[in-house]
Design brief:
It is a single chain. This protein is of the alpha/beta class. The chain folds into two domains: 222 residues, no CATH class; 201 residues, no CATH class. 48% of the residues lie in helices and 8% in strands. The chain contains 20 helices and nine strands. The strands form three sheets. A five-stranded mixed beta sheet has the order 1-7-2-8-9. Strands 3-6 form a two-stranded antiparallel sheet. Strand 4 and strand 5 form a beta hairpin. Helix 5 packs across helix 7 and helix 13 crosses helix 14. The longest helix is centred in the last third of the chain and has 28 residues. The chain starts with a helix and ends with a helix.
Length: 463
């Protein structure tokens, strides 16, 4: 419902002169006082599959060893987005054309890929694009799975270069896409034992079922032999969704079922602060592609893999919450109540008394912090519906400089086109969020005013 401003002003003045009665239900922010977040340290990650086996591998043992940790389960979500960029279907348009063709002329020879990526007399740019926009995205990726970095585990090296195995998988997919062919992932997964055993040889029926050549199969075998846990990544619903979107895999019942599992519904948001009134304006904070989560902490039951937000993340959310509260108040004062033309001490004084009551009833904040997420314009609308359907406005908090890897269309991807805004976490730290806070505050102010009007116009209120 859209209501004319003069009428809203009149009703809100009525609110000031005769405020509604309601219970006090404000909840304190968990970061106020003693923060519930934790400090960040280099997390422990399972090292299974790091070394390359040269002999025959037991696929059953390998499968048991390669069960993904929660951190790796999230890493594959970030990896799925990075794969979209490196196949030229996401990210900065300036680099997409280069990504779509870079490496097409290179052979499917895993040893050659490793040599090209690691030896000083070779040029890694024969296989990948020097895209500076992905640097901070890959930093987040390597935080959750350090084995995906070319310099795996070395936190002293900040590098744009992914592991040779990732580059090899991209090369295989790129060639299949350009040839108009699609891999049958269901057939490939059904032949896990065959792929994990370097001594095994596929039959013609196997190759036909998977829709790969003998050379492509050997290439994939070498990749999985080098990093066995990547086979588990190929089963991930989020990665499979990306592969299907890129046109790289055959659509069958297995693929459809996996894609249906690419959901954030198991990780709902929680009420953070403010009103729990059914008519409140709900603002959601949604961390995305950030390394501000830790896991593997010791608890009373032993080592826990549960994610915990860092203290820094809580501090930034607390700071932004205060900014949005202040911006909502300012906008309601300026645009809805006074218009900058009324300077009555009595009205101003009354407003200062009434505003906390309006805020208490009509302004609410939610937070999704059970785990990290990978949210970007292409999946944001669906993700918000799954995580926090009650949200009226969503603030997606990105890791440092991750926004550079994302292409934003101002006409479709951010407010006012949609009720979402993307904020860099370091912009919050350095107080560079005034414009975003003002936009969100004015949205909240207008929404609150309309809800006050609706309540005043309801039959129960008239009676």
């Amino acid at each position: 419902m859209r209501v004319e401003i003069p009428f809203i002003v009149a009703v809100v003045f009525c609110f000031i002169l005769r405020p509604l009665a309601y219970p006090s239900d404000i909840h304190s922010f968990p970061g106020a006082g003693s923060l519930s977040g934790t400090t960040k340290t280099s997390p422990p990650i399972s090292q299974s599959g790091v070394q390359t086996n040269q002999g025959q591998v037991s696929s059953k043992a390998a499968s048991m060893d390669e069960v993904l940790t929660p951190a790796q389960t999230h890493a594959v979500e970030v990896l799925a987005y990075l794969l979209k960029i490196t196949l030229g279907i996401a990210g900065d348009p300036e680099y997409r054309k280069q990504w779509r063709t870079r490496g097409l002329e290179e052979p499917l020879d895993f040893r050659n890929v490793v040599k090209t990526m690691t030896e000083t007399n070779c040029n890694a740019l024969d296989l990948m694009v020097l895209d500076p926009n992905i640097l901070d995205l890959t930093t987040v990726l390597y935080y959750y799975d350090k084995r995906l970095s070319l310099y795996e585990g070395d936190y002293g090296v900040t590098s744009i270069y992914p592991a040779s195995e990732f580059i090899a998988i991209r090369l295989l997919l790129l060639k299949k896409i350009h040839s108009g062919e699609k891999v049958s992932l269901s057939a490939l997964v059904a032949r896990e034992d065959l792929i994990r055993n370097p001594a095994a040889r596929p039959t013609e029926q196997d190759l036909h079922a998977m829709n790969v050549t003998t050379g492509e199969f050997k290439f994939l075998q070498a990749i999985i032999q080098s990093k066995p846990h990547l086979f588990q990544y190929l089963k991930s619903p989020f990665l499979l969704e990306a592969l299907y979107g890129a046109g790289a895999v055959v659509e069958d019942d297995f693929v459809k079922e996996k894609i249906s599992q690419a959901s954030f519904r198991p990780y709902p948001c929680r009420h953070l602060q403010g009103s729990q009134h059914t008519n409140a304006v709900n603002i959601l904070f949604l961390p995305s592609m950030t390394d501000e989560f830790v896991w593997g902490r010791q608890n009373d039951l032993g080592l826990s893999h549960d994610f915990q937000p860092t203290r820094f993340l809580f501090e930034m959310i607390s700071k932004l919450t205060r900014e949005l509260e202040a911006a909502t108040k300012r906008c309601m004062e300026k645009e809805l109540l006074f218009g900058g033309n009324i300077h009555s001490p009595s009205i101003n004084s009354r407003w200062e008394v009434i505003w906390p009551e309006i805020e208490k009833k009509y302004l609410s904040f939610y937070l999704a912090d059970q785990r990290p997420f990978a949210i970007y314009p292409e999946n944001a609308a669906n993700a918000v519906r799954e995580i926090c359907p009650q949200a009226d406005f969503t603030v997606i908090i990105l890791g440092k400089n991750v926004y550079k890897s994302i292409f934003f269309d101002s006409k479709t991807d951010s407010y006012p086109a949609v009720n979402r805004i993307y904020v860099d976490i370091m912009d919050i730290k350095h107080s560079r969020t005034e414009k975003a806070a003002q936009a969100i505050g004015c949205f909240a102010s207008a929404s609150i005013a309309e809800r006050i009007v609706t309540e005043r116009m309801s039959p129960s209120m008239v009676e």
